[in-house]
Design brief:
This protein is of the alpha/beta class. The protein folds into two domains: 6-39 and 296-478, Aldehyde Dehydrogenase, Chain A, domain 2 (3-Layer(aba) Sandwich); 54-294 and 496-513, 3-Layer(aba) Sandwich (Aldehyde Dehydrogenase, Chain A, domain 1), CATH 3.40.605. It is built from 16 helices and 25 strands. Strands 2-16-18-19-15-14-21-22 form an eight-stranded mixed β-sheet, sandwiched between helices. A hairpin with a 4-residue loop joins strand 6 (70-75) and strand 7. The radius of gyration is 23 Å and the shape is globular. Bound molecules: NADP nicotinamide-adenine-dinucleotide phosphate and magnesium ion. The site of magnesium ion (MG) has 6 residues, from strand 6. The site of NADP nicotinamide-adenine-dinucleotide phosphate has 30 residues, from helix 8 and helix 9.
Length: 514
């Protein structure tokens, strides 16, 4: 760390415009954000050029979209155009499904399982070899800090391929006494918050079980999915086993409607998830199987007997990891009354040290918001919090002038009926509330339409089990938060969707069990 009188970011920064009810977090004597700076440490990205145009990946080849339409993909940290991405229409989706069917009938569906496993191991190893390149591109295209894409996303992506590679020839041990059979062509639609990780969650188990795939990445983050297509070519994966159709919501909708798809796996917003469920419910026969991984509004519950400093770190990573673009983010903090003041004081100090800025800088904690539309949504929800009586506390950090940024924010005096306590914000915004008894904590935590995840912080193991049993959430972390492993299932209750991904449960979603 070096002392610099002139911040490296200074030429391109403006202070966060303080609004009336915004209380800037107290300046600390050592305010790293302003007075002490780390020297800039940007990851070198020059060795990973991005082609000016990206085509669709169908039947093992990169092909132009039938309508010759393209859309721009931009860097959310600079607003610079990175490349043009092909916009697939219904005809392109049909070509991709036909290629996937041909590969299923001709090669993949009848290939001995141990051979399928070898391809998955090969893909996993190439991902590891090219992980720096993939991490840099993930950060440039999506805005997440390089230290997250490099140290969390990419290792998990490779781990998912390794994990499911291992299962490919052991499916009958996964389901003793049953005969697992593949389903056919899987249509998979993913969001922008973990572009490669969501692709890995979906592609790896589908292929391990002998299915072929048509994947639709999110509009704002297609670049790394197309690099993954290059990796499939490099691994000699037979043509048509995985097809990637980039495009808009309509591209995803065309995939959902296609009669040749045997399974739809969707991760995204509750709103689109409901639309998909409705579309499929209207198809009386030949409807594909469906799994939905949707939004969340997780409760992070801190009891008086919790290890407080450890909990502070968990709260911080629970909400500010990936700019809060995390479906399972601990966006509602419930603190037991006796430690409320202490926790708030420690949180204020800790939030003030978070570094917001260039996502490619290795010291950055909070990168860019993924798109201007998402930034608008975060701003409007925080404004609603202010209007409904919450106090908005924000750091006094400086934000770059260009790009989409939102400072780490904490909302206090939040009441359970406020929109910020009920609706998913999907940004770096924490809503803080209190409780007195474990029963009250459980009741408040469950008081939301969602049920994806939760956190419990306490010194007592018995309390963890007692509380966890009553929380209506698919994933519950105890004395930690946002920990992922390919072997553990992930999925929600209520409006957070149904079906599980990861672990054995993730395999079951891609098999017929006779
Ligand atoms: P989204 O708007 O629902 O989009 C998700 C995907 O669906 C994108 O690829 C999108 O394409 C596509 N899509 C849009 N309209 C469609 C339609 N009518 N039919 C079929 N596909 C359609 O969600 P998002 O804003 O990208 O992602 C944020 C949401 O995902 C949050 O609510 C978050 O909680 C949720 N999420 C959940 C999990 C989980 O595991 N439960 C994990 C990550 C994220 P375009 O990009 O082209 O619009
Ligand atoms: Mg982008």
């Amino acid at each position: 760390m070096k002392r610099s009188s002139k911040s490296a970011l200074k030429p391109a920064v403006k202070a966060v415009a303080p609004s009336r009810a915004v209380v800037p977090l107290r300046e600390r004597r050592l305010n790293f954000g302003d007075k002490w700076d780390y020297a800039p440490a940007p990851e070198d990205h020059k060795g990973y050029p991005i082609a000016p145009r990206h085509e669709l990946f169908i039947d093992g080849k990169f092909v132009k979209p039938r309508a010759r339409r393209y859309f721009d993909s931009i860097n959310p940290a600079t607003e610079e155009k990175l490349t043009e991405i092909a916009l697939a229409d219904e005809r392109d989706v049909a070509a991709a499904v036909a290629a996937a069917r041909k590969a299923y009938d001709g090669v993949w569906g009848k290939m001995p399982a141990r051979e399928r496993g070898k391809y998955l191991f090969r893909i996993a190893r190439i991902i590891q070899e090219r992980s720096r390149e993939l991490a840099v591109l993930e950060t440039i295209d999506g805005g997440k800090p390089i230290k997250e894409s490099r140290d969390i996303d990419l290792p998990l992506v490779a781990a998912h391929f390794f994990y499911y590679a291992g299962w490919a020839d052991k499916l009958k041990y996964a389901f003793p006494g049953r005969t697992p059979r593949s389903l056919g062509v899987a249509g998979q639609i993913i969001p922008w918050n973990f572009p490669l990780l969501m692709a890995a969650w979906k592609i790896a188990p589908a292929l391990a079980c002998g299915n072929t795939v048509v994947l639709k990445p999110a509009e704002t983050t297609s670049i790394t999915a197309l690099r993954l297509a290059e990796i499939f070519q490099q691994a000699d994966l037979p043509p048509g086993v995985v097809n990637i159709v980039t495009g808009a919501g309509e591209t995803g909708a065309a995939l959902v409607r296609h009669p040749g798809v045997a399974k739809i796996a969707f991760t995204g917003s509750t709103e689109v998830g409901k639309l998909i469920a409705k579309t499929l419910a209207e198809r009386s026969n030949n409807a594909p199987r469906l799994t939905l991984e949707l939004g969340g509004k997780a409760a992070n519950i801190v009891f008086e007997d919790a290890p407080i400093d450890q909990a502070i770190e968990g709260i911080i990573s629970g909400i500010y990891f990936n700019q809060g673009h995390v479906c399972c983010a601990g966006s509602r903090l419930f603190v037991q009354e006796g430690i409320h003041k202490t926790v708030l004081r420690k949180l204020r100090d800790r939030i003030q040290t978070l570094r917001v800025g260039n996502p490619l800088d290795k010291n950055t904690d909070i990168g860019a918001i993924n798109s201007s539309a998402q930034l608008k949504k975060i701003r409007s929800l925080v404004k609603s919090g202010e209007e409904q009586g919450a106090v908005v506390e924000q750091t006094s950090c400086r934000l770059p002038a260009k790009g989409y940024w939102f400072p780490p924010t904490m909302l206090t005096r939040v009441s359970p009926s406020h929109r910020v306590a009920q609706e998913e914000i999907f940004g770096p915004v924490l809503s803080v509330m209190t409780f007195r008894t474990p029963e009250e904590a459980i009741e408040r935590a469950n008081n939301t339409p969602y049920g994806l995840s939760a956190g419990v912080w306490t010194d007592k193991g018995s309390k963890i089990f007692k509380v966890a049993q009553k929380l209506r959430a698919g994933v519950i972390w105890a004395n930690c938060y946002n920990k992922f492993d390919p072997a553990s299932p992930f999925g929600g209750y209520k409006e957070s969707g149904f079906g599980r991904e990861g672990g054995l449960h993730g395999l079951a979603a891609y098999c017929r069990l006779d």
